[in-house]
Amino acid sequence: MTDLVGSVIVFIGAVFLFSAGLGMFRMPDALTRIHAGTKATTLGNTLVLVGIAIYEPDWSLKLLVIVYFVLMTNPISSHALAHAAYTLRGRLGASLFLADDAEREHGRGR
Which one in 18, 65, 82, 86 has a CA-CA gap of 20 to 30 Å to 56? Predict the structure, then answer.
């Protein structure tokens, strides 16, 4: 029974990781790509590691430490990427901030 529960949790985590990759491929601008990549990979990695912990209870403490580091480093890295994208806005082209560019074209922007 625990093998089935672990398999289901690992599968759900893999679906979230797949959706993160798909979101990074399909999103139109840099900030939504960062958002899609960070949110889904954090949950996907956590679920995969929890599923593995159900398979191998002896590894639970090590996997808990890995989950802790994933939960701490993913938001920090996404913030750093978003800050870099915002800072390099002029060099990255018009597609970085689609809403701002559309407003500017229609005369409602800054």
Answer: 18
